[in-house]
Amino acid sequence: MKRHRLFAVITLLCAFALVVAACGDDEATDDGLPTVKMQGFPADPVGLPALVMHELGIDVAHGFIAEYLPVDPDAATNTFLIGESDIAMEQDGVNMTIVQAEGHRAVLFAPGANMMTGIVVPADSSYQDPTDLIGQKVGHFGVDSGTTSTIALMLKEIYGLDVFTEYDLREVGPEALPELLKSGEVEAIFDFEPLALRAVLETPGRYLFEPAKAWAEFSGGWSPWLTNLAAREDWLAENEELAFGIRDAWMEAIDVLQGGDFALLREEPYKSFLELKSDEELEAFIQYCIDLPCFGTSWTQADIAALNDYLALFAENGILIDAVSPTPVAVILEDYFG
Hints:
By secondary structure, this protein is an alpha/beta fold.
Protein backbone atom coordinates (compact mmCIF):
# COMPACT_ATOMS: atom_id res chain seq x y z
CA MET A 1 0.00 0.00 0.00
CA LYS A 2 1.46 3.35 -1.06
CA ARG A 3 0.30 5.74 1.63
CA HIS A 4 3.86 5.84 2.99
CA ARG A 5 3.12 6.58 6.63
CA LEU A 6 6.65 6.59 8.00
CA PHE A 7 6.31 6.60 11.77
CA ALA A 8 9.20 5.01 13.66
CA VAL A 9 7.35 3.65 16.69
CA ILE A 10 7.22 -0.07 16.01
CA THR A 11 8.96 -0.88 19.27
CA LEU A 12 6.40 1.15 21.18
CA LEU A 13 3.67 -1.21 20.05
CA CYS A 14 5.23 -4.04 22.02
CA ALA A 15 4.28 -2.16 25.20
CA PHE A 16 0.62 -2.66 24.44
CA ALA A 17 -1.34 -5.74 25.38
CA LEU A 18 -2.69 -5.71 21.86
CA VAL A 19 0.57 -7.03 20.47
CA VAL A 20 0.76 -10.71 21.32
CA ALA A 21 2.93 -12.85 19.08
CA ALA A 22 4.87 -9.87 17.71
CA CYS A 23 6.36 -9.37 21.16
CA GLY A 24 7.12 -12.96 21.98
CA ASP A 25 3.88 -14.69 23.03
CA ASP A 26 2.83 -17.03 20.25
CA GLU A 27 -0.20 -18.64 21.87
CA ALA A 28 -3.68 -17.36 22.48
CA THR A 29 -4.83 -17.95 26.05
CA ASP A 30 -8.48 -16.84 26.12
CA ASP A 31 -10.21 -20.23 26.11
CA GLY A 32 -8.41 -21.31 22.99
CA LEU A 33 -9.80 -18.52 20.82
CA PRO A 34 -8.09 -18.01 17.45
CA THR A 35 -5.64 -15.15 17.13
CA VAL A 36 -6.28 -12.85 14.17
CA LYS A 37 -3.30 -10.88 12.93
CA MET A 38 -4.51 -7.46 11.83
CA GLN A 39 -1.83 -5.51 10.03
CA GLY A 40 -1.48 -1.76 10.02
CA PHE A 41 1.07 1.01 9.94
CA PRO A 42 2.73 2.08 13.20
CA ALA A 43 1.01 5.01 14.92
CA ASP A 44 -1.63 5.12 12.18
CA PRO A 45 -5.09 6.29 13.34
CA VAL A 46 -6.55 3.76 10.90
CA GLY A 47 -5.66 1.02 13.40
CA LEU A 48 -7.45 2.55 16.38
CA PRO A 49 -10.54 0.29 16.18
CA ALA A 50 -8.30 -2.78 16.43
CA LEU A 51 -6.68 -1.36 19.56
CA VAL A 52 -10.08 -0.49 21.03
CA MET A 53 -11.54 -3.93 20.33
CA HIS A 54 -8.63 -5.60 22.09
CA GLU A 55 -8.43 -3.26 25.08
CA LEU A 56 -12.18 -3.47 25.75
CA GLY A 57 -12.53 -7.19 25.08
CA ILE A 58 -14.73 -6.68 22.05
CA ASP A 59 -12.60 -9.13 20.09
CA VAL A 60 -13.01 -11.90 22.67
CA ALA A 61 -16.75 -11.25 22.82
CA HIS A 62 -16.84 -11.95 19.09
CA GLY A 63 -14.79 -15.11 19.29
CA PHE A 64 -11.18 -14.16 18.56
CA ILE A 65 -8.12 -12.32 19.85
CA ALA A 66 -6.95 -9.31 17.85
CA GLU A 67 -3.21 -8.99 17.37
CA TYR A 68 -1.86 -5.77 15.86
CA LEU A 69 0.91 -6.52 13.38
CA PRO A 70 2.88 -3.35 12.54
CA VAL A 71 4.11 -3.36 8.94
CA ASP A 72 6.36 -1.20 6.81
CA PRO A 73 4.21 0.84 4.39
CA ASP A 74 6.30 -0.22 1.42
CA ALA A 75 5.96 -3.91 2.31
CA ALA A 76 2.37 -3.91 3.56
CA THR A 77 0.64 -5.36 0.52
CA ASN A 78 3.18 -8.15 0.11
CA THR A 79 2.96 -8.96 3.82
CA PHE A 80 -0.79 -9.32 3.44
CA LEU A 81 -0.71 -11.33 0.22
CA ILE A 82 1.82 -13.91 1.39
CA GLY A 83 -0.25 -14.62 4.48
CA GLU A 84 1.87 -13.14 7.24
CA SER A 85 -1.29 -11.36 8.39
CA ASP A 86 -4.95 -12.34 8.24
CA ILE A 87 -6.61 -8.95 7.86
CA ALA A 88 -5.21 -5.74 6.35
CA MET A 89 -6.52 -2.47 7.76
CA GLU A 90 -4.72 -0.14 5.31
CA GLN A 91 -5.96 -1.30 1.92
CA ASP A 92 -8.28 0.64 -0.40
CA GLY A 93 -10.22 0.20 -3.63
CA VAL A 94 -7.42 1.32 -5.93
CA ASN A 95 -4.88 -0.95 -4.29
CA MET A 96 -7.31 -3.87 -4.37
CA THR A 97 -7.86 -3.27 -8.08
CA ILE A 98 -4.10 -3.45 -8.64
CA VAL A 99 -3.84 -6.58 -6.49
CA GLN A 100 -6.54 -8.34 -8.48
CA ALA A 101 -5.03 -7.24 -11.81
CA GLU A 102 -1.83 -8.99 -10.70
CA GLY A 103 -3.76 -12.23 -10.25
CA HIS A 104 -4.28 -12.22 -6.50
CA ARG A 105 -7.66 -13.01 -4.97
CA ALA A 106 -8.52 -10.60 -2.17
CA VAL A 107 -11.45 -8.31 -1.37
CA LEU A 108 -12.50 -5.42 0.84
CA PHE A 109 -15.26 -6.35 3.28
CA ALA A 110 -15.81 -3.43 5.68
CA PRO A 111 -15.41 0.35 5.87
CA GLY A 112 -12.32 1.81 7.48
CA ALA A 113 -11.09 5.34 7.86
CA ASN A 114 -12.80 8.12 5.97
CA MET A 115 -10.66 10.28 3.67
CA MET A 116 -8.47 11.90 6.33
CA THR A 117 -6.37 13.98 3.94
CA GLY A 118 -6.30 17.53 2.69
CA ILE A 119 -4.60 20.48 1.06
CA VAL A 120 -3.22 22.92 3.62
CA VAL A 121 -2.12 26.49 2.92
CA PRO A 122 -0.89 29.28 5.24
CA ALA A 123 -3.76 30.83 7.15
CA ASP A 124 -2.94 34.32 5.89
CA SER A 125 -2.55 33.33 2.24
CA SER A 126 -4.88 34.65 -0.44
CA TYR A 127 -5.72 31.23 -1.89
CA GLN A 128 -9.46 30.56 -1.95
CA ASP A 129 -9.73 27.34 -3.94
CA PRO A 130 -7.34 24.84 -5.55
CA THR A 131 -7.30 26.67 -8.89
CA ASP A 132 -5.48 29.54 -7.16
CA LEU A 133 -2.48 27.25 -6.76
CA ILE A 134 -1.86 26.86 -10.49
CA GLY A 135 1.84 27.47 -11.14
CA GLN A 136 2.68 27.44 -7.42
CA LYS A 137 5.01 25.12 -5.50
CA VAL A 138 2.99 22.39 -3.82
CA GLY A 139 4.48 19.74 -1.55
CA HIS A 140 3.38 16.10 -1.64
CA PHE A 141 4.89 12.69 -0.89
CA GLY A 142 4.53 10.75 -4.13
CA VAL A 143 2.30 10.71 -7.20
CA ASP A 144 1.51 7.06 -6.52
CA SER A 145 0.39 7.73 -2.94
CA GLY A 146 -3.28 7.45 -2.07
CA THR A 147 -3.26 11.02 -0.80
CA THR A 148 -1.86 12.65 -3.94
CA SER A 149 -3.74 10.42 -6.39
CA THR A 150 -7.07 10.97 -4.63
CA ILE A 151 -6.63 14.74 -4.49
CA ALA A 152 -5.52 14.74 -8.13
CA LEU A 153 -8.62 12.83 -9.23
CA MET A 154 -11.01 14.99 -7.24
CA LEU A 155 -9.51 18.25 -8.47
CA LYS A 156 -9.73 16.95 -12.05
CA GLU A 157 -13.40 16.05 -11.67
CA ILE A 158 -14.52 19.04 -9.58
CA TYR A 159 -12.34 21.83 -11.03
CA GLY A 160 -11.03 20.41 -14.33
CA LEU A 161 -7.55 20.88 -12.85
CA ASP A 162 -4.57 18.66 -13.71
CA VAL A 163 -2.26 18.92 -10.71
CA PHE A 164 0.48 16.91 -12.42
CA THR A 165 0.95 19.56 -15.11
CA GLU A 166 -0.53 22.71 -13.58
CA TYR A 167 1.10 22.60 -10.13
CA ASP A 168 4.83 22.83 -9.48
CA LEU A 169 4.93 19.64 -7.41
CA ARG A 170 7.75 19.14 -4.90
CA GLU A 171 8.16 15.68 -3.35
CA VAL A 172 9.43 14.99 0.18
CA GLY A 173 8.47 12.52 2.90
CA PRO A 174 5.07 13.00 4.55
CA GLU A 175 6.53 13.94 7.93
CA ALA A 176 8.63 16.70 6.32
CA LEU A 177 5.67 18.39 4.65
CA PRO A 178 4.39 20.43 7.64
CA GLU A 179 7.83 21.99 8.13
CA LEU A 180 8.11 22.64 4.39
CA LEU A 181 4.91 24.68 4.52
CA LYS A 182 5.86 26.43 7.74
CA SER A 183 9.22 27.50 6.31
CA GLY A 184 7.57 28.98 3.21
CA GLU A 185 9.36 26.67 0.79
CA VAL A 186 6.00 25.69 -0.72
CA GLU A 187 2.64 27.43 -0.95
CA ALA A 188 0.59 24.35 -0.08
CA ILE A 189 0.92 20.69 0.87
CA PHE A 190 -1.03 17.48 0.27
CA ASP A 191 -0.88 15.34 3.42
CA PHE A 192 -2.82 12.88 5.57
CA GLU A 193 -3.83 13.14 9.20
CA PRO A 194 -2.60 13.94 11.71
CA LEU A 195 0.24 15.52 9.68
CA ALA A 196 -2.02 17.87 7.75
CA LEU A 197 -3.48 19.01 11.06
CA ARG A 198 0.05 19.53 12.38
CA ALA A 199 0.66 21.90 9.49
CA VAL A 200 -2.53 23.77 10.35
CA LEU A 201 -1.39 24.21 13.96
CA GLU A 202 2.26 25.01 13.38
CA THR A 203 2.32 27.17 10.23
CA PRO A 204 -0.38 28.34 11.18
CA GLY A 205 -2.47 27.09 8.29
CA ARG A 206 -5.94 26.27 7.09
CA TYR A 207 -7.54 23.63 4.92
CA LEU A 208 -8.00 24.78 1.34
CA PHE A 209 -9.49 21.47 0.23
CA GLU A 210 -10.87 18.58 2.30
CA PRO A 211 -11.48 15.58 0.01
CA ALA A 212 -14.07 13.82 2.16
CA LYS A 213 -16.30 16.87 2.42
CA ALA A 214 -15.71 18.09 -1.12
CA TRP A 215 -16.50 14.75 -2.76
CA ALA A 216 -19.61 14.25 -0.63
CA GLU A 217 -20.89 17.62 -1.83
CA PHE A 218 -19.90 16.87 -5.42
CA SER A 219 -21.40 13.38 -5.51
CA GLY A 220 -24.59 14.05 -3.62
CA GLY A 221 -23.55 12.56 -0.29
CA TRP A 222 -21.12 9.67 -0.79
CA SER A 223 -17.40 9.98 -0.19
CA PRO A 224 -14.66 7.34 -0.57
CA TRP A 225 -12.81 5.75 2.31
CA LEU A 226 -9.12 6.25 2.89
CA THR A 227 -8.84 2.61 3.95
CA ASN A 228 -10.89 -0.56 4.26
CA LEU A 229 -10.62 -3.96 5.88
CA ALA A 230 -9.33 -6.53 3.42
CA ALA A 231 -8.96 -10.31 3.43
CA ARG A 232 -7.61 -12.88 1.02
CA GLU A 233 -10.27 -15.10 -0.47
CA ASP A 234 -8.47 -18.28 0.57
CA TRP A 235 -8.56 -17.05 4.17
CA LEU A 236 -12.26 -16.17 3.89
CA ALA A 237 -13.07 -19.63 2.53
CA GLU A 238 -11.57 -21.21 5.64
CA ASN A 239 -12.85 -18.66 8.18
CA GLU A 240 -16.42 -17.70 7.33
CA GLU A 241 -17.71 -17.42 10.90
CA LEU A 242 -14.55 -15.67 12.03
CA ALA A 243 -14.84 -13.12 9.21
CA PHE A 244 -18.28 -12.07 10.45
CA GLY A 245 -16.95 -11.80 14.00
CA ILE A 246 -14.06 -9.59 12.92
CA ARG A 247 -16.32 -7.31 10.91
CA ASP A 248 -18.84 -6.99 13.74
CA ALA A 249 -16.15 -6.35 16.35
CA TRP A 250 -14.57 -3.73 14.08
CA MET A 251 -17.85 -1.90 13.62
CA GLU A 252 -18.59 -2.08 17.35
CA ALA A 253 -15.17 -0.60 18.13
CA ILE A 254 -15.84 2.25 15.69
CA ASP A 255 -19.18 2.87 17.42
CA VAL A 256 -17.38 3.03 20.78
CA LEU A 257 -14.88 5.57 19.46
CA GLN A 258 -17.35 7.79 17.64
CA GLY A 259 -20.20 7.38 20.10
CA GLY A 260 -17.91 8.67 22.83
CA ASP A 261 -16.70 11.62 20.74
CA PHE A 262 -13.24 10.02 20.59
CA ALA A 263 -12.66 10.76 24.29
CA LEU A 264 -10.82 7.43 24.58
CA LEU A 265 -7.93 8.98 22.66
CA ARG A 266 -7.04 10.99 25.76
CA GLU A 267 -6.36 7.74 27.61
CA GLU A 268 -3.65 5.12 27.40
CA PRO A 269 -2.71 3.17 25.38
CA TYR A 270 -4.46 5.15 22.64
CA LYS A 271 -2.71 8.44 23.38
CA SER A 272 0.76 6.91 23.17
CA PHE A 273 -0.16 4.86 20.12
CA LEU A 274 -0.87 7.99 18.07
CA GLU A 275 2.52 9.57 18.91
CA LEU A 276 1.18 13.11 18.59
CA LYS A 277 3.52 15.95 19.48
CA SER A 278 1.45 17.66 22.17
CA ASP A 279 -1.84 17.68 24.03
CA GLU A 280 -2.85 20.59 21.77
CA GLU A 281 -2.36 18.37 18.73
CA LEU A 282 -4.29 15.56 20.41
CA GLU A 283 -7.25 17.82 21.22
CA ALA A 284 -7.23 19.20 17.68
CA PHE A 285 -7.20 15.67 16.26
CA ILE A 286 -10.11 14.63 18.47
CA GLN A 287 -12.13 17.61 17.26
CA TYR A 288 -11.16 16.78 13.67
CA CYS A 289 -12.41 13.22 14.11
CA ILE A 290 -15.68 14.40 15.60
CA ASP A 291 -16.19 16.80 12.71
CA LEU A 292 -15.32 14.53 9.77
CA PRO A 293 -15.94 11.85 11.33
CA CYS A 294 -12.76 9.79 11.07
CA PHE A 295 -14.33 6.37 10.42
CA GLY A 296 -17.00 5.08 8.08
CA THR A 297 -20.03 3.21 9.39
CA SER A 298 -21.99 2.47 6.22
CA TRP A 299 -21.29 -0.58 4.04
CA THR A 300 -24.19 -1.21 1.66
CA GLN A 301 -24.61 -2.22 -1.95
CA ALA A 302 -25.13 1.47 -2.73
CA ASP A 303 -21.77 2.27 -1.09
CA ILE A 304 -20.04 -0.44 -3.11
CA ALA A 305 -21.68 0.76 -6.34
CA ALA A 306 -20.44 4.28 -5.58
CA LEU A 307 -16.96 2.90 -4.93
CA ASN A 308 -17.01 1.09 -8.28
CA ASP A 309 -18.01 4.31 -10.06
CA TYR A 310 -15.23 6.14 -8.23
CA LEU A 311 -12.66 3.54 -9.29
CA ALA A 312 -13.87 3.87 -12.88
CA LEU A 313 -12.90 7.55 -12.73
CA PHE A 314 -9.35 6.59 -11.76
CA ALA A 315 -9.19 4.31 -14.79
CA GLU A 316 -10.71 6.91 -17.13
CA ASN A 317 -8.14 9.48 -16.02
CA GLY A 318 -5.24 7.02 -16.08
CA ILE A 319 -4.42 7.61 -12.42
CA LEU A 320 -2.77 4.52 -10.92
CA ILE A 321 -5.05 2.07 -12.78
CA ASP A 322 -5.97 1.63 -16.43
CA ALA A 323 -9.11 -0.44 -15.96
CA VAL A 324 -11.52 -1.52 -13.25
CA SER A 325 -11.43 -5.09 -12.03
CA PRO A 326 -13.81 -7.55 -13.75
CA THR A 327 -14.43 -9.18 -10.35
CA PRO A 328 -15.70 -7.43 -7.20
CA VAL A 329 -13.10 -5.54 -5.20
CA ALA A 330 -15.55 -4.98 -2.33
CA VAL A 331 -18.17 -7.36 -0.93
CA ILE A 332 -20.85 -7.62 1.72
CA LEU A 333 -20.07 -10.80 3.63
CA GLU A 334 -23.69 -12.00 3.72
CA ASP A 335 -23.85 -11.83 -0.07
CA TYR A 336 -20.32 -13.14 -0.56
CA PHE A 337 -20.97 -16.33 1.36
CA GLY A 338 -24.53 -16.62 0.06
